[in-house]
Structures are given as C-alpha cells and as structure tokens.
Amino acid sequence: MNFKTTLIIVVLLIGIGGAYYLFFQEAPHDASIDEKPMIHQVYGVTRDIVQQVEISFADTAYQHLKLEKDRTGNWKLTQPIQVDADSEKVSQVLDNILNKRIKQSLEVPALTQYGLDTPSVTLSLWTNGTVPAATFLIGKKAINFSVYVKEESEVHIFLIESSALDDLTKSTTDLRDRSMIKFDTETVAGIQLQQPDTGSTVHCEKRDNAWRVVHPVEAKADVQEIETLLSELQILKVSTFEADGADANASARLEKYGLNTPRIQTRITDTSNTYTLNIGSTGTPDTGTQGQVYVKVSGHQDAIYTVSEDVYNLLNKSVFDLRDKRVMDFQRTDTVRFEIKRDTETTVGTRNYDDTWELQTSTGKIKADADTVSDLLFGVDSLEAAAFIEGPIKSLASYGLSPPSIEVAFTQRGAEKPAVLLIGNQTQDGTVYVKAEKSEQVVRVKPALVDNIALGAAWLRDKQVLDFHIDDAIRLTFTASGEASVTCQRLGTNWRITAPVQEDANNVEVNAIIYELDNLTAETFVGRKPASTGFDKPNAQLTVELRNQKVYTLQIGKPDVSGRFYARLQHEPDLIFLLNAELVPKLKTTLALLRTSEQGTL
C-alpha cells in the first residue's frame, strides 16, 4: 500500500467519524438552561400578586375564561359562568406558566410565520388597576419542544417550553371547584334528613356541645354516626356537571333528574348559614352516569350535578341509625366489683390489688378468668340496642323487668351508687328486653351476652380444671368404655404398669397424658345440668394421684350437639363443663399404647 492510498483511507475515516458525530451523537446537555430567566423574573408578575386572569382561545371549542380573586384570597370563575373556582388548580396554572424559563429572545420582522398574529392562546394577568400587568400571546410550536411567545406591548418574541399550551388550554370544568358544600364541621349546630316520599324526618341538634335527636323523639344522638356523616359531606366532590344556570322550563329539568320530589333532602345549619342538598334519581349506563346520583345544592343557582351514589346510603338514615344505641354508660376500667343476681343465685366478682379477679359463690371463693371478666365489662359497656320500645312504658312487669330475670350491678371506684342493668324476658325473635336502672328507656338487645351472663360463675370462673404440677403425679389410672382399667405407677423418674399387667410403661405416652391433665382447661362450664350427659356410662375416666395424697378423677361423658364432650370431676359432680372434641382423643388411650415399644411387639 503506497502513501497516497493510505492518506485517502485516513481522510475517509475522519470524514465518516465526523459525520457520525454530527448526525447521530446526542447533543450534550446545555448546562446553562437553568440559568435562563423565568417569565415572572423578567416581567415582575408572580402568582401571589395576580388578582385577575383572562384566557382566550383561537379554537372556538374552548370558552373564554375569566377568573377573579376575592377578598379571602380564593379564586372565582366569573365568565362564562359565575361559580367558585378550584383555587389550587388556578394557582398551579399560574405557576406553570410564570415559572417557565425564556430559552431565547428573537427580533422578527413579522408575526405571521410564528402564529402570533392570531395566537392560539392569549393570557392576560392583572395585579391591580384596570390595565393588565402583562398579556402573553402564545403562537406556533417550534423545534426542540418550544413554542413562540410574545408579550403584547413588546416588539421582540421569545421561546419557552411547548408544554405551556397544555398548561393553559383549560375548560370551565377543569378549573371550577368540585366541592359540594363548604362548611366547618366544628360550627355545625343542626342537621335534618327528610324523605319526602315517605314523610320521614329526623332532626338532630347540637346543644351544650352535645348532639341530641330532637325529632321525632328526644334522645341522645350517636355522636360518631353524625360526625362521620358530616365529615363525608364535607369532602363530597362533584363527579359531573350536568346542568348550569337557569332554565326556562326549570320544573321539567328537575323532574328529569328526579329532583322535583327528592328522595332525600338534607339541611345543615351552622352559626350563620343553612345548606341544602337534594338527592335525586340514580344515573344510567346510557348517560354515562351509572353508579352516580343527581343532586342539587342551595347557593349553586340552578346547577345540577352528579356525585357517587354512596351519598344516598350515607344520608338514608332512620331515627334509629342516628340515636345513641348504648344501653348503659359506666366506666368499665374503674369497676372494682360486680354482682349478678339470678333467682336465688348470686355471683359476686371482686377486683384484687394486683388486678386479678375473684368470684364469691354459694360454694365459696374461686378464681375468676380475667379475659372473661373483661368480656363481661366490655360487653355491657358497649351493649347496644337492637330496637327501642317507643312510647310511655306502663308496666315494666310486662317486659319481665319488675322484678327482673337477672340484675347486674357494677360498682365503680369513687361512685356513690353502682350502675345497674336489668334483664327481662326473651322475645319471639330471640332478642331480650333490658333496661338501665337509671334510664326510662326499655330496649331489645341481641341475646349472646345475656346468655353468658345467665351462666353466672359457670361463665366467669377460671377455666383451668386441675391445679397440680406434672412432677407431683405418682399414679395414673385410665378406664375406657368397654376396656379394662390400666394403672401406671411412678418409680423414680420412670413409669411402670401395675395393672392389668406388670411391666415397664412407655414413659413418653404416660407423661403426655399427665401433661394434658396438668394443662386441662374447660371450653366452658355448664350453668345448669343437662338432661343427658353420659356420666352413668363414661366415655372415659382418668384418675391421677399426687404426692400430697390428693386424688382427682376426671369423667368424660357423651358429646353435646356441638361435638364437645361433657366432663366433670368426680368430687364435684354438679360442676359440669365441656371439653374440646380434639382434646378427648389425646386423653383416651389403650394398654397397647402405654406399654413400651419392645414389650408391645411381643
């Protein structure tokens, strides 16, 4: 290869490299772009000092927009309609345009080729006075994601990001406030829910900082229910703007949307205003409003909107829904004593200094189950009415409340008198009449808690059946129905079968049974002896003898309807309890299992 050829090849390579760099390599980042001035810096117009905005469009599909800031600093749409604007969205629009950086300024002989003779968007901003502080004409898009802009009073034009067109191209719907009702939940003094088609009206008022139902009955209100209702109404937003402004045939329009006779009329009153929200018919798939309801709000002229149909369920409340349903009011955490009276039986629970509970029954003192006592206190404290007995109560005896079937009294620390719950008859639907002694109101409640209270000590006592340590057991005798008894004797740390055969026992199996007995807990104690328990022919019987000469004999009878097994200790034949069905097989065993593996295979 000669020198001339080599030179030609080098020149070609340099040319190819230069062409690649020129046409395909990405341009380096212009580090100076962030140093370009923003529009608000050049023209001295910031978002906070703007008092009025006008936006007009070359495209007639968009309406001319005019917005004004009121004395409170909130934005309002004044053209094409007069409604509240979404102040946050208006501020965002202003920020987006005024914070745009001016990429380049150009001196041009004519505006036509830049689209500035008939601009796509014209933005006028007022800070004070009657003359705009600045008017920006937005023209055609340029290369490098830019758009041509001109301030109306200047000769030169400049380039900014083309996203300005999207930032400013807004409709009335884009900028108007979607809040339905603006009120302060803290100042609301009344709320009324009316259903014109049924004539039902519920009226609640806030008196002395407490909510009460004042119509159709006088009663304490459910504060949480009302606060939830007000909070949900406060954040309720418009889904679609169906109709704005007055209509020549207003009655026909109201009928079209089911607002001539609203399903629900809600009236909220605060210290200075009354707000009305009417709920009309439900939207349909063909109108694109499925899952929404039509509504009309006072103060919004004749505008009709749609909102989520959840608002109907929120406001479709009866007097029962809004009144306080708690039966009793006492401080369960301050309760130091309770007393349950039923017929001739009385169970007294006393809180000890270490916060454990002890029961006093006709048979003496027994340990109480802490969790169950907590269930009693919490259950009565949170007990709610399933229904109220309306009208004057002529005779408590007709409800089984004078005298009551059960009386439960709770003594609280520092209180002069106990809080008393009276429990009466059961109704045909299974609910039970109850009444707080200090209240005139008789209510019906669900039976679950009452059924447990009726068990007295059987429900509240400690569920541990036996009280011994596994190392204290020295003899175990097991008898299963239809099988011979098996007795095991502890010899040191090992067990030996002494009957019906004499040989070493399987220590693991024997200790497993002792362990189950040591930790045996009742599912529940049975308050009154069932008609048939199976103790005449026990399913199984286990006797454990301890070093201190105590003897416990557990008898397991037949299963109840739930599959749990009746059981009792032989020395307390009337104290019947239920054992978990899965536990019983662990206690039942055979001679073959108790023998050692070597002997069991002989």
Labels describing this entry:
9-stranded antiparallel beta sheet; single chain; alpha+beta; 602 residues
Explain what you see:
There is one protein chain. By secondary structure, the chain is of the alpha+beta class. 21% of the residues lie in helices and 34% in strands. The chain is built from 16 helices and 36 strands. The strands form four sheets. Strands 4-3-2-1-6-7-8-9-5 form a nine-stranded antiparallel β-sheet. A nine-stranded antiparallel β-sheet has the order 13-12-11-10-15-16-17-18-14. A nine-stranded antiparallel β-sheet has the order 22-21-20-19-24-25-26-27-23, with helices on one face. The chain is elongated, with a radius of gyration of 42 Å. The N and C termini lie far apart (103 Å).
What is the strand and helix layout of this fold?
Elements: H1 3-23, H2 39-43, E1 52-57, E2 65-69, E3 75-79, E4 83-84, H3 87-98, E5 104-106, E6 121-126, E7 134-142, E8 146-151, E9 157-161, H4 163-168, H5 172-175, E10 190-195, E11 200-207, E12 210-215, E13 219-220, H6 223-234, E14 240-243, H7 250-256, E15 264-269, E16 274-282, E17 292-297, E18 304-308, H8 310-315, H9 319-322, E19 335-342, E20 345-351, E21 357-361, E22 364-367, H10 370-381, E23 387-388, E24 406-412, E25 419-426, E26 432-436, E27 443-445, H11 448-454, H12 457-460, E28 473-480, E29 486-491, E30 494-499, E31 503-504, H13 507-518, E32 524-526, E33 540-546, E34 551-559, E35 565-569, E36 572-579, H14 584-587, H15 591-594, H16 597-600
Antiparallel strand pairs: 1-2, 1-6, 2-3, 3-4, 5-9, 6-7, 7-8, 8-9, 10-11, 10-15, 11-12, 12-13, 14-18, 15-16, 16-17, 17-18, 19-20, 19-24, 20-21, 21-22, 23-27, 24-25, 25-26, 26-27, 28-29, 28-33, 29-30, 30-31, 32-36, 33-34, 34-35, 35-36
